[in-house]
Design brief:
The protein has 259 residues and is an alpha/beta fold. Helices cover 31% and strands 20% of the residues. Strand 3, helix 2 and strand 4 form a beta-alpha-beta unit.
Length: 259
């Protein structure tokens, strides 16, 4: 049986909570849709149905998600952009959630300690080719390689068209791999400072209750890219406005995250 490549690319990383059934609800006031859990086709369809059924349309998507497959994240991002929804991330938005849902919003809000972690765009799909091909017996390897190349090319074209529509630089999903390759050998994903997000076209971004953004990785340390020449690491489970040396776990000089 053929395996649809875009259904398996973009595996979730840096989950902020244990996996379970994804919850999709509408807030008591009716102003927000709430999506809590891993991206799934069923959850996406329930979200779309709740919106369609609402007499007064919600204007905000509140999402906490560890991510999911490429096609699920892109489908949700395209829908968010089409309906010009605001996106609020109270806890975490990782992988395909960050790549395609957060970037698609008309306005974005992050919780005080919310985590926003990027990785795994279609221009980096070759990183998952070996794992994909391993699913097939030797006699089907040539066919699988051809299918992989064709489907990734199609998915990349769709991804580029999406980023062009929302006005975001598509390098946002691969910048960590391309510019910090050595460091990324030790990390699953990366985040950006607010000024760096703005450079990619992701803005405006507000922080809940007007606080300063101090992202807190839950289980794994995270590379934080502050500027094209400046980076550091955020240790797992630690609340700090300092960047740390990725190897020694010592604070870097002049490393305040908000600088």
């Amino acid at each position: 049986m053929a395996i649809k490549i875009i259904m398996v690319l973009g595996a979730t990383l840096l989950a902020g909570a244990a996996r379970g059934e994804t919850s999709v609800t509408i807030s008591y006031t009716g102003e927000a849709l709430v999506y809590d859990g891993e991206l799934s086709a069923a959850a996406n369809q329930r979200l779309f149905a709740l919106y369609d059924a609402a007499t007064v349309k919600p204007h905000t998507l509140v999402i906490s998600s560890s991510g999911g497959a490429f096609n699920l994240g892109l489908a949700l991002g395209e829908w968010v952009a089409q309906h010009r929804l605001r996106v609020h991330v109270p806890r975490y938005c990782n992988s395909a959630c960050a790549n395609y849902v957060f970037t698609a919003a008309s306005h974005r809000e992050l919780g005080y300690h919310a985590l926003l972690a990027f990785h795994g765009g279609m221009d980096e799909a070759h990183r998952q080719r070996a794992a994909y091909l391993a699913r097939f017996p030797a006699q089907r390897q040539a066919e699988a390689r051809q299918r992989f190349a064709a489907e990734v090319k199609e998915a990349r074209q769709r991804e580029l068209a999406f980023f062009a529509r929302i006005g975001v630089d598509p390098q946002i999903t691969s910048y960590g791999y391309r510019h910090f390759a050595r460091i990324m050998q030790r990390y699953n994903a990366w985040s950006y400072s607010l000024p760096m997000l703005s450079r990619f076209g992701v803005g405006p971004i507000s922080i809940s209750q007007g606080e300063r953004w101090l992202p807190r990785p839950a289980n794994d340390s995270l590379l934080m890219i502050v500027s094209p020449q400046r980076y550091g690491c955020l240790p797992a489970g630690r609340v700090t406005d300092l960047l740390y040396d990725c190897a020694s776990d010592q604070p870097l000089p002049l490393s305040a995250l908000g600088d």
